[in-house]
Amino acid sequence: MCFKYASVASGSCGNCHYIGYKNTKILVDAGLSGKKTEENLNNLDINLENTSGILITHEHTDHIKGAGILSRRYNIPIYANENTWKVIENKIGKIKENNIKVFENNVPFYIEDIKINPFSIHHDAADPVAYTFYNGKNKISIATDLGYVCDKIKENIYDSKLVVLESNHDVEMLKMGSYPYYLKKRVLSRKGHLSNEDAGRFCIELVERGTEKILLAHLSRENNFPELAFETVKGVLQEKNIHVGKNLELSVLKRGKISNLYAV
Predict the structure, then answer these.
(1) Where would I find the Metallo-beta-lactamase domain in this sequence (predicted)?
(2) Distance (Å, rounded) from C-alpha 93 to C-alpha 72?
(3) What is the SS3 assignment for the chain?
(4) Which tens digits make up the pLDDT trace of 162-213?
């Protein structure tokens, strides 16, 4: 058996990822409306009945908007660390006590057949995390909303067969764009978002450490577009003689749309 992965949506309009293995179904974040999440998953013939958990990365609206609705509608447990729970509990509505699951950062746990490691990242939230998933044979990682990629983050993601990696903005587009100065400063900070160029540089290391599929995620609507993210990362890789289509599969996840279903 292999992992199945799909992006339900990715970007400032909402973020949600689907992971399946054997009979286990998990969502990472639920930043769309409940209805839109259902519609997108239905396009891949995936329903939310018997979903084993919703994992929250952090409390920003584009990651939690539909979490409470889906938990109540389908009786799904919600997993987050203690600091994140403190700030989301008044935002997502009433959750059944037995569906409130609290984990510790950097302490692996299991949801049925999937081992999960939530690891700390740099972002302007209470206690943000990214996730790695293991099925005994393969490993995949989801890492967005990264101010920068430190050594500890790298070590957690290395050796993943598939990586969902933020490629949020083009630096020059951001600098010349309409964002107010304080927001530009936030995005560019070490608690902001990862640029196309920085994503590309990290992709070099990932390929060298065995990653076969990289999916660029969380693109800014105002300061990026899919073709630019793809070509920038592709160009950075080519400078190191790493070729898309030969040495790795590289794709860009669309805002608001379901992706292909990937098998790992």
Answers:
(1) 13-193
(2) 9
(3) CCCEEEEEECCCCCCEEEEEECCEEEEECCCCCHHHHHHHHHCCCCCCCCCCEEECCCCCHHHHCCHHHHHHHHCCCEEEEHHHHHHHCCCCCCCCHHHEEEECCCCCEEECCEEEEEEECCCCCCCCEEEEEECCCCEEEEECCCCCCCHHHHHHHCCCCEEEEECCECHHHHHHCCCCHHHHHHHHCCCCCCEHHHHHHHHHHHHHCCCCEEEEECCCCCCCCHHHHHHHHHHHHHHCCCCECCCEEEEECCCCCCCCCEEC
(4) 999 999 999 999 999 999 999 999 999 999 999 999 999 999 999 999 999 9
pLDDT, tens only, 108-166: 999 999 999 999 999 999 999 999 999 988 999 999 999 999 999 999 999 999 999 99
CA 56, CA 91: separation in Å to the nearest integer?
13
